[in-house]
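Students often ask why we bother encoding 3D structure as a string. The short answer is that it lets us treat folding as translation between two languages. Here is a chain of 114 residues written in the first language.
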Amino acid sequence: MENDRELLEAAAKAAGIEAHWGHGWQSDMMFTRCVDLTGVATGREWNPLKDDGDALRLAVKLGIQITQEIPASSRFVPKATAYYREHFSETYGSNPFSATRRAIVRAAANIGKG
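And here it is in the second language, the structure alphabet:
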């Protein structure tokens, strides 16, 4: 299984997002280039594993379908599933949002690798 860094790199590639890793204390953060209101080039953190908006934009851009599987019986585990030619399911207990974001990024990363 890939680590988060590899997943993010492959997902960014799939979406055509030009992103780079930060330096120093920001070395575990990925940034995209953007321009502020004054026209100065700057960066914005991009992390669909942690940010709902980044994850949703990634899913929409790539046409990834998202479903929630919430079983009627407590004997089954709820899952978030992202689909793009393959299903990428993540089980969740108390955090369906995190599971959904991870499923989206896994599907996007698969697109980026193919």
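Translate back mentally: Helices lie at 4-15, 52-62, 96-113. Keep this in mind for the problem set.
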